[in-house]
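quick one, four chains, predict together pls
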Amino acid sequence: MTEPRARRRARLNRDKVVQAAVDLADTDGIESLSMRKLGVALGIEAMSLYSHVANKGEVLDGMIDAVFGEIDAPSSRIKWKSAMRRRAISIRQVMARHPWAIGLMESRTAPGPATLRHHDTVIGMLRAAGFSIELAAHALSALDSYIYGFALQERNVPSVTGETARLAKLLLTQLSSDEYPHLAELTVKHVLQTGYDHGNEFEFGLDLILDGLERARHPD
Amino acid sequence: MTEPRARRRARLNRDKVVQAAVDLADTDGIESLSMRKLGVALGIEAMSLYSHVANKGEVLDGMIDAVFGEIDAPSSRIKWKSAMRRRAISIRQVMARHPWAIGLMESRTAPGPATLRHHDTVIGMLRAAGFSIELAAHALSALDSYIYGFALQERNVPSVTGETARLAKLLLTQLSSDEYPHLAELTVKHVLQTGYDHGNEFEFGLDLILDGLERARHPD
DNA sequence: ACCTGAACACCGTTCAAGT
DNA sequence: ACCTGAACACCGTTCAAGT
């Protein structure tokens, strides 16, 4: 038993550093991901990380690419609409697993191999389904904007589950119903209703776009 | 002339601190916005800021609310569809002026008065146009997801303007056209075409959603 | 009431030194 | 080739002290 408390994988490399960073961000949040804590998690001094990555930015780029690798590649064996629908739902699930990812995307500009592979597959599937280059670009832009934007907003809305959150929201609504009557009405009569599922909201907008794309592909 | 180099406004207060933070983020980027630099910009010691704000988070919340205050309130004197279209374009313009805002939204959860006022006005306009509560919620969720997601993606794509960026992109495409053929094709034959305007991409998706909402309001 | 300076507990990163 | 410890230039924030 020469092992200290932190399990040291056979040999450290870039991928293992990135995976440890993903785990740390999932557990403690991205704001507490530091090179020093990452070192501790790997049973290593923080400065040793620089043997495997050039800087923290490379870790962050790797994390984003790892997240893209988790997205289900759309199958070309089903209708394009079902495939794009499943892809959207898969992205939303992945973003729910890694809530820090959506915020990280904003600051990173160097797409990794998994990211490029994913987009290449999606474009290829749309082209095979008969989309023109222009329409494929429009479709990808519209769908991804919607999916990422929804994930971004979902992160900001405090979850309605849990009685305390519910009570807090009710109180807030009560206080502001004079100043913001329409917002108060929408909150009380819609968002706070038992059985309200934010996922329905996601699928409503998603189907709006998918139906619109179908119409654009087959102009009347 | 008792004034030192930094203009000191008559008396400092929360709003002036927030406005200085917005200016600093616009100029130098959000990543270099620190309490110390904010102090320098205001001709004050960093620690004096805590007389006006509780912490940096309050500054960030204020910045987001200031950005919402810049969005054109939708007029109730025109058709809902035109009003929502203009609102979307206004948000995109405001986000272009303050590119840091979209990334900040992700981490802030306390909406300020301008934010609440804006959303209340929009919901009120949709309700007046005959939208049910449910459909108004769906409409706002779909549109805002799309708008913010588009802004998020727009920030990640290096601008195609400028010959150097153009050449760099061409080279990149050349290198990866074997591995990512569809991505390469879309980039070369669409994105890099002269006259390509990313704004058209925005309006395509926007009109897709607006048309879909119109159909949802008047089911066939 | 507002501002200051010193201090604390953190950051990312460099560098010379070790094995 | 990989890891370490000390150091540098930064952070946000607290606190006792000044006016």
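The radius of gyration of chain B is 22 Å.
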